[in-house]
Structure formats: structure tokens, C-alpha cells
Amino acid sequence: MSPFNVGFVIFPELTQLDFTGPQQVLARLPQSAMHIIAKTTEPVPSDSGLSLVPTHTFENSPRLDLICIPGGNRGVVQALGDRETIDFVSAMSGCGHLHRANRRHRGAGERQADLDYELDR
User: Is the pLDDT of residue 89 over 70?
Assistant: First the structure.
């Protein structure tokens, strides 16, 4: 039986905890494989300065069963404006476009900078 492939798309200035928290939980799935995917295999800086090392690029990523995209502030806005990133996510999801799903609020009504997005199916 082939593993359940979980991919995390990382990009500069992502929030590290939004990546490593879910990755820590999903890595415990039986018969699963975790893949850290970015445009290149160069280390990717988080918004706290911690660099993360991809295991795959958009070009050599395996087919994914689950794709996870961490949050962040500026990093998410930049990633949403990056055609290569959007094309990779769209190709992996088997659909054509990405759109804003909703706006979330945190704490004392402060709007979260990293808005939720979802893929049309």
C-alpha cells in the first residue's frame, strides 16, 4: 500500500508554528509521508527568522493526498500573488482557481492578516 502523502507548501515569511504544529500532528498518521515543498530547495525564512528546509520543489513533488498551506502575515499575501505557487496548489488540487473563503477575527476584534482561502472543486 502506498503512503498517504501530506504536503506542506512553504514560502518566505510564513508563520513557523502554523507549519510545524500541524506537521507534528499529521506526521503521526499511520502509513503517511510528510513532504515540505517550496519553489526551490534553498532554506525558506519564517517570519521569526527560523529557516526551514524543503524536501521537494514544485517540480519534483510527489502527488499529494493532502496539501497544507501555513499562515503568516506578509508571506501569505506575497504567496497569493505568486503565480508559480498558485499554479502548483491548483495543479495538486486538480482544480482551477483559488478564492477567499472568509474573514476571521481574533482577540479583541483584530482582523487576522492571513485570510482563509479555499480551492473551488
Answer: yes
Mean pLDDT of 30-36: 96
Strand ranges inside 14-113, DSSP E? 32-38, 44-45, 51-52, 56-57, 66-68, 98-102, 105-106, 110-111
* Residue 93 to residue 97: CA distance in whole angstroms: 10
Q: How much is the pLDDT for 93?
A: 80
The alpha-helical segments, DSSP class H, found in 47-118 are 74-80, 83-93
Q: What is the pLDDT of residue 111?
A: 41
The matching CATH number, chosen from 2.30.42.10, 3.30.70.141, 3.40.366.10, 3.40.50.880, for 4-119 is: 3.40.50.880
Rg of the chain, C-alpha, whole Å? 14
Q: How far apart are CA 86 and CA 79, in angstroms?
A: 8
The DSSP 8-state label assigned to residue 63 in this structure reads: P
H/E element, 5: strand 4-9
The residue type at 31: Q
- Give the cell for residue 47: 517570519
